[in-house]
Amino acid sequence: MKKIIATIFLTMIFSANAQVIIGDATGTAAVKTSVLLEFAAGQNKGIIVPYVRTMPTTPTEGTILLDASTPISSRMKYYAGTVKGWVDLSGQDANLTSTLTTQPAGITEATTSKAIIGAATSAADGVLVLESTTKAMVLPIVEDVQNIPSPSPGMMVYINKTGAKRLAVYNGSKWSFWKP
Question: E strands of the chain, at which residues?
Fold first, then answer.
């Protein structure tokens, strides 16, 4: 019953094409009109991208995932288009062999199933699709990755620390940092 209620609730949220705020009691949609998906700051939590055992054959530009196609050398990657292809965000391998034993395998995926925020439909192939030409996702904000008690493989956060503002991705073994 809880799953049915949650599904109905999420369907209503996603079909309304509204801003989605996760982990915060107060919405900011009236102030932050350029945000589709936002996470509350200071929660010491991140967003986890999908683990894939088989890389997509026709990915949408901007796709971010944890490439576990070779479990002993898993890496966070994003798709930069047909010219650049898959770009490594990790810069280092992680062995996810034991982690993958707790993840579902061999499940037939409904290829048309996806949650779309920002539009009624989308041609993009993904589990969670943010569809907008004027709005973006705000990653979970933390002061330091050391404050995250048990990071999960595929986790992404934005570090908002004086002198160290940057994107951090966790490949299951180590954090990698990207700064402007």
Answer: 20-22, 35-39, 47-48, 51-52, 64-67, 75-79, 86-88, 115-117, 128-130, 136-138, 141-142, 155-159, 166-170, 175-178
